[in-house]
Description:
- By secondary structure, the protein is an alpha/beta fold.
- The chain folds into two domains: 7-102, Translation factors (Elongation Factor Tu (Ef-tu), domain 3), CATH 2.40.30; 113-244, Rossmann fold (3-Layer(aba) Sandwich), CATH 3.40.50.80.
- It has helices at 82-88, 124-133, 160-169, 193-201, 220-232, and strands at 7-18, 21-28, 42-48, 54-60, 70-76, 95-102, 113-119, 145-151, 173-179, 212-218, 240-244.
- Helix 4 runs parallel beside helix 5 (220-232).
Amino acid sequence: MAERKIYSATLTRSLPLSDLTKHLEFRTDNGLERFDFTPGQFVSITATKEDGKPITRAYSIASEPHGDSTFELCLNRVQDGWMSNRLCDLAEGDRITWHGPHGLFVLKQPLFDSIFICTGTGVAPFRSMLRWMFEEPGRDGGRELWLVYGTRHADTIYYRDEFEELAQRHPNFHYIITLSRPHEGWTGPKGYVQERVREILATRPDNGVGNTHAYICGLNEMVSANREQLKSLGWDRKQIFFERYD
């Protein structure tokens, strides 16, 4: 078995997405001129804790492949989470070690009409997929694509401007935000992502059975609720792809 290659990378940009969430941009070192990955994959960040114990955590890549040595991450500062706090506290110019890419949570070919379902930072792999699909004409295959994004409050809608602009430029892309704890002035959809998914499927032939794919990313409870709903509507498990964050 080949030894896993460990790389280093330098933080080139850090942007707050909310009080507890950061968008981080890295450029790889070690003379790696290109970092090639498939949208939806992840990298594993490695470090050594103060007590000398090694630690590794996986984070979905939030950027499309640029043909260079860069990648972007979107992550929450988790209470008592050693790695997430370390990464969120990085200053531009600081370095990390990592390996990758890893993972099979990628777009399936041939591409079907697809619903991308996520909450919070589960949007990261879908940002990668959607930006890549719309980067060049024809990559989306003219398919109908939905991004259903759920969160509690309006101040944790990540990359909203990007996705709204994408929806304006591409009529086959539909961006739906739903808030489970909306503020008083919120006029958009309310409730959980599975409610929005059910509404979309009600407009599809046979509730999407056999003609639609679902990609789900987020915490286990949300992933399980959506998988169970789809199966209750007659979906085959081969139409459902998911990545859990816990």
